[in-house]
Amino acid sequence: MRQEYHIYMTSDGRISMAGLSARTVPHLADAIHAAVTQLK
């Protein structure tokens, strides 16, 4: 997610929710959806 979507997480997968805004939530949702659906 970091390279493609520029979303940075801690080593245990946490994301800072305080850094989100109404404008950036769709971007995060798209990134999570892509990551989950591309798992094999």
Give a structural overview.
The radius of gyration is 10 Å and the shape is globular. It is mainly α. The chain has 2 helices and no strands. It has one domain (2-37). Its cofactor is pyridoxal 5'-phosphate. One of its GO terms (molecular function) is L-aspartate:2-oxoglutarate aminotransferase activity. It comes from Arundo donax (Giant reed). This is Pco118382.
Shape category:
globular
Structural class: mainly alpha
Strand content: under 5%
The SSE string, one letter per element, is HH
Rg (CA only): 10 Å
**Biggest sheet character:** none
The averaged pLDDT comes out at 88
Give the beta-strand count: 0
- Detail the poorly predicted runs: none
| Helix percentage | 40-55%
Distance between the termini: 16 Å
| Number of domains as seen in the coordinates | 1
What topology emerges from the helices and strands here?
Elements: H1 2-5, H2 25-37
Which structural traits does this protein have?
mainly alpha, transferase, about 40 residues, single chain, 2 helices
Question: How would you summarize this macromolecular structure in one to three sentences?
Answer:
It comes from Arundo donax (Giant reed). 42% of the residues lie in helices and 0% in strands.
